[in-house]
Amino acid sequence: MKVLAIGDIHGRNDWKKIPFEYYDAVVFIGDYLDSRQGFSDQKIIKNLREIVRLKTKFNHIYFLIGNHDLQ
C-alpha cells in the first residue's frame, strides 16, 4: 500500500504536482492556512477550496486539521 502524507501547505500549491492516482491513500496533515510567504487571504482560501475539491475526484484522500487551522 502506497500512502502519501502532505503537511504544512500554508497557502502554497505545490500539492498540484502530485499524481494522486498513484497512491492508495493521501493524507493532508493540516496547516492549510496562516501563510508566512505573504499570500493574500483570497489566494489561501482559493487554494484550500481546491484541495477540498480533490475529495470529489478521489475518494482515497483524507484531511486532518493542523495547529495553524484552529486559530
- Average pLDDT number: 92
**C-alpha end-to-end distance:** 34 Å
Coarse morphology: globular
Helix-strand topology string: EEHE
Biggest β-sheet, characterized?
3 strands, parallel
How many individual helices? 1
β-strand amount = 15-25%
The secondary structure category is alpha/beta
Cα Rg: 12 Å
- What's the number of extended β-strand segments? 3
Range of helix content: 10-25%
Describe the structure.
The chain is globular. Strands 1-2-3 form a three-stranded parallel β-sheet, covered by helices on one side. 8% of the residues are buried. The mean pLDDT is 92. The chain has one helix and three strands, in the order E-E-H-E. It has one helix spanning 41-57, and strands at 3-7, 25-30, 61-63. Helices cover 24% and strands 20% of the residues. The chain has 71 residues and is α/β, with parallel strands linked by helices.
List the main descriptive attributes of the protein structure presented here:
globular; alpha/beta; 24% helix; 1 helix; three-stranded parallel sheet; 71 residues
Short description:
By secondary structure, this protein is of the alpha/beta class.
